[in-house]
Amino acid sequence: MALALAWAAKGMFITAPNPRIGCVIVRDGVVIGAGHTQPAGQAHAEIQALRDAQARGKDVRGATAYVTLEPCSHYGRTPPCSDALVQAGLGRVVAAMTDPNPLVAGRGLAQLEAAGIAVTSGVLADQAHELNIGFFSRMRRGLPWVRLKLAASLDGATALAGGESQWITGPEARADGHAWRARAQVILTGIGTVKADDPQLNVRGIDTPMQPRRVIVDSRLEIPFSARILQGEPCWVVAAVELPEKAAALRAAGHEVLVLPNAQGKVDLPALLRELGRREINEVHVEAGSKLNASLVREDCVDELLVYLAPNLIGPGQGMFELPPLARLADKRRLRFHDLARVGDDIRILARFIQPDTNTEE
Fold this sequence. Notes:
Layout: H1 2-9, E1 22-27, E2 30-36, H2 45-55, E3 64-67, H3 81-88, E4 92-95, H4 107-114, E5 118-121, H5 125-131, H6 133-141, E6 145-153, E7 159-160, H7 171-183, E8 186-190, H8 191-197, E9 213-217, E10 235-239, H9 244-252, E11 256-259, H10 269-278, E12 283-286, H11 290-298, E13 304-310, E14 317-318, E15 335-343, E16 346-353
């Protein structure tokens, strides 16, 4: 299963909206076929592994397939993988976990068992879940997994008071940040960041055939047409008001304008996430300023923080979040450290919000 997970990771940047799945077929302790899910509409991991075994001249009848997610049992963009495994005559299928998609949800494993194939599930399930945390979030909650990225000095500043921030962290951390961008389907930012930094917010230095969609939260449609983020691939601009002329010009340039107001005349951030879920977005990567960061946290729209801490001190500057002061320490927002790693000279922290009603990580 560990090898199947390694194969699944090969599809990190290409499978969305489908999950990243790997499959290895084993006979007598020897791998005779392996593969991973291809871009949407193309072959899934099980089909790739069966084709690989065939290309090697190997007979899969009676062999064991290790799959990082329950084989699909419904017709989507491709036929059911469970049918292919039954027809191929596999003797056993080991799945890391069941598929949360309600169109599958145990039916694939049941079909295999009904055909006389031995089935095991729950092997390295935690690792399989991590690899597809956004897919699981969308299937279970109708929402993408939202990861908010920050780069800060050891004393918590993301920029000098005047806005200068290039570069607080080192080149290794910046390259690592691009890898996290690449695994998301959306990079979300706000108009404040667009005006202050004029970023491209695309993936650079990573070999990926798919660039994430850029989404700009811009309540009053203030974005200048000269903004670099509007160059290249179309963006989704999310406003709170419909300004017909500006919206028409943006649409004429190939961009999409969504109008999602809340009662305060700002963009309704929870509604935006629900819309992204409907559009089959699994993972959202946020790179924004302290105001939008605070709004996303305040409205419970963030699942985890991706924080790069640099070994330097800046002194008074711009912070990570513009959150209001607390009256009681008991009202603090709690997170759980999920992962700590050294990246170059910097420290990378993954911290997940603990929901007060469930006291769990998700």
